[in-house]
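Handout for the seminar on molecular recognition.
Each group receives one record of this type.
Step one: identify the two inputs.
Step two: read the structure output and locate the region that could contact zinc ion.
Step three: write two sentences on what you found, then compare them with the reference statements printed after the record.
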Amino acid sequence: MASHIVGYPRMGPKRELKFALESFWDGKTSAQDLQKVAADLRCSIWKQMADAGIKYIPSNTFSYYDQVLDTTAMLGAVPDRYGWNGEEIGFDTYFSMARGNASVPAMEMTKWFDTNYHFIVPELGPNTKFSYASHKAVAEYNEAKALGIDTVPVLIGPVTYLLLSKHAKGVKKTFSLLSLLGNVISVYKEVIAELKAAGASWIQFDEPTLVMDLDSRQLQAFTDAYSELESSFSGLNVLIETYFADVPAEAYKTATALKGVSGFGFDLVRGTKTLDLIKSSGFPASKFLFAGVVDGRNIWANDLAASLSTLQALESVVGKDKLVVSTSCSLMHTAVDLVNETKLDSEIKSWLAFAAQKVVEVNALAKALAGLKDEAFFSANAAAQASRKSSPRVTNEEVQKAAADLKGSDHRRATNVSARLDAQQKKLNLPILPTTTIGSFPQTMDLRRVRREYKANKISEEEYVKAIKEEINKVVKLQEELDIDVLVHGEPERNDMVEYFGEQLSGFAFTVNGWVQSYGSRCVKPPIIYGDVSRPKPMTVFWSTMAQSMTARPMKGMLTGPVTILNWSFVRNDQPRSETCYQIALAIKKEVEDLEAAGIQVIQIDEAALREGLPLHKSEQAFYLEWAVHSFRITNCGVKDTTQIHTHMCYSNFNDIIHSIIGMDADVITIENSRSDEKLLSVFREGVKYGAGIGPGVYDIHSPRIPSTEEIVDRINKMLAVLETNILWVNPDCGLKTRKYAEVNPALSNMVAAAKVLRTQL
Ligand code: GLN
Ligand code: ZN
């Protein structure tokens, strides 16, 4: 029975790794303490998969920070500024690259394909020296072997590694990063030889870039790379794993022709066309097909009957002994274990499967294919599928109708943006280069405790409101002292920008431990959208009006936009994403209108995750952007000219969707910028006209480093070179919730000082 798991969550069922990392970073525990937690986690994951009966169990899918950074370490491709001594890479160098240190900023971080996971972008150039500098893959393989478990070591493939890299500072863009393939492959050969010597019989190369729209030169790199590696593969089985989308026909042809490869893994959940390709174009004889039928990106129980029939159809194409049941991608993008969900009701629980349950599903499917179908398991699954389809909790006719009525009409504010900005300035009277922050202030231990105790009914509502009010007051006073122009209340009542809203909307369910890694030690707990969405009552008006009453300065109302709520939730797989998005937009629209009616003059609707919902294939992007931008406009098309609508986005690389961003028609946009080398500005340099307010972040909030006033002045000057003075805002990259006050106070103080220095010069 052949079953395979592409990868597994590394944080642990209760985020054990997160806590171990953070206490190590804070100097509270030793490196050995951290290593012990990590080893225990790996051990329990391997054992769990072995006990479930999985044949191909992955190793090296654990990471202390990020698997791409692990690959950079493996290849010794450490940027010079980290002063690495060339020895086996240890925590110092590794975490400096990930997080920066007192003297050097971190490497850039960017989204992993269309997920909410972020990886550390390799920085390469003609002078990058590659050497085998981290033996982690082999160490993990040996560690599992010592536990009696033979694993499949997982490496990021050489071509994907290069295609995800960027040019190091100072390297000409004309330099082809793919020209480094030979150097990179030399190191891979050493790694492969060592894994082989250790006893590995399979190696998995993750080459997810094969699903992208690649040109012929990029595709050729795969052919070159694997021809070059072929001799190293003798005596080994090699799996090329792809995920997250359809593999385009050309790439499918290239992939399945790769030399020395024994098997190919495809995402058959998102890659429905790949399924057709396999059936129509065929599959190379005597190769293994790793069929990713169990969804690694969502939390729904697999429709086992449907998967089984897909698998049976594939069996007739590739042959019985060549079909391996697998997950669509690494399970790191789903929650860890349903067993720890004590608060979900049993009906909803019966509809779900987290990573641990998906492992069991994969195995059940493999057994069924082998003629050992567990009838009880399959019929319980069929009953759950049927109950979800017919449950009255899922459907709300009124919401369905309101969302359907939106179609075909445009939703826009009546006046154009420059007239609106004039009207707003008359009321707000802001200085040039107005300063603001993105929303959250540091989330202290005390705050978290207060929220926890309130949730657990350990403190009364009155005590809770009092504590939060004090916190808001503290944050308001601090901003006034810092002399920030447009204030925020600091979001102390929010655990998370999506969960907070989901908890107050109908159609959402919540987990207690359904965490998914976002970057480094940071995890998010996406809500589960299981039914039609509506807003029973106002969600933020109480806190926002309280905060506004504490100051004469404008206080931003703070909402999360529909696209972000959608993209950061586990969504329904029984209706199109766009339908769900329109429903959420209507709910947020009501909130916007209530805030306005309560006297809030500036309302920020965060669309942090707009870009990450962008389909990987160009051909599907326009449609997504159309309904996503439309959904955003629906939320605020009804407000007065004098109400200033802000939005915030956190990603680099938005140049290709600038016209959609303009199409959102917000009055002001604040946007992450500093960790991506001001790529953002180039689009304006190239002449795109932007009439609304814009605040490209002036410093990186992902790092504990405190930027100096001069540095911020420099940054702003660079922005002023391409953007008009009267539209530029000054703000950090993103919310401050992960930072400490010891970092936030001086950083914001320097930021305000920088704005003031420039105001005197303009
Ligand atoms: N308003 C949110 C905050 O400041 C925005 C966070 C985000 O963009 N991820 O926390
Ligand atoms: Zn952000």
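Reference statements: Residues 438, 608, 648, 650, 672, 734-735 surround zinc ion (ligand 2) (CB under 6 Å). The chain has 27 helices and 20 strands.
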